[in-house]
Amino acid sequence: MSRVVSLLLGAALLCGHGAFCRRVVSGQKVCFADYQHPCYKLAYFQELSSRVSFQEARLACESEGGALLSLENAAEQKLIESMLQNLTKPGTGISDGDFWIGLWRSGEGQASGACPDLYRWSDGSGSQYRNWYADEPSCGSEKCVVMYHQPTANPGLGGPYLYQWNDDRCNMKHNYICKYEPEIKPTTPGEKTYFTNQPEDTHQNVVVTEAGIIPNLIYVVIPTIPLLLLILVAFGTCCFQMLHKRKARRNFIKDSTPLSSECLAENLNSNLVHMMVSIIPCHVQNNNSCFLN
């Protein structure tokens, strides 16, 4: 029951007015923030020549660690329908084209009455949920199953069974839907991308990411780099001017020191001469009182 409720909540998120509603993109792996839902990928090809057979679609999903879509119940069917509705919203250029799912049969020559019981999920799921259109499966040479997706069809030409299932020849060319195990919740902060594995034929849409500490720091630091450079240049210029002034002051002191010594010596010599001139006449005159002058 909790699984069904979880899937219904996922469908509500896709159908509602939240950010997820506008971001289902062809060929991208879609996971959910609660890490309880499986992940899905809706691979749509605009060019008919690019679409693939059942076996090619199966191999493509398995090469990425997934499998062609298996559906457990009506809630999961509703979730996929919601994704398809968002995928084909107006303006995306995505329209008609059935999608391979993982249901198929390998038996030969069985009676028509037993045919529906021979279909199995390619990923080994034991789910007994089915969403066949009326009078399907037709069996015969049609052994592989598609989810009908012709949203532009008139009601009388297939419109009423949109998203229901139809068996088809396995070599026919269609789009496909992959399913993956739920993502493991990360134990450390970091960037968690909900949409990945974008092929060449996708359309330009915004990718939803949950950024951790490191991406946020990058967005803060990068715009401040010019300011940091300006501060660094100003600081360097200031330091250069201070060093230049200090050097000039040292040179001035060094040059002025000898000049001061010479001036002092000259003053001392001048005073000595003056004293000698005063003392000699007194000695000649033999007058002791002149030393008092």
Automatic annotation (TrEMBL):
It is a single-pass type I membrane protein. GO terms for biological process: positive regulation of axonogenesis. One of its GO terms (molecular function) is carbohydrate binding. Residues 1-21 form the signal peptide. It is found in: Membrane. SMART domains: CLECT. The chain crosses the membrane at residues 217-240. This is Chondrolectin. It comes from Myotis lucifugus (Little brown bat). The gene is CHODL.
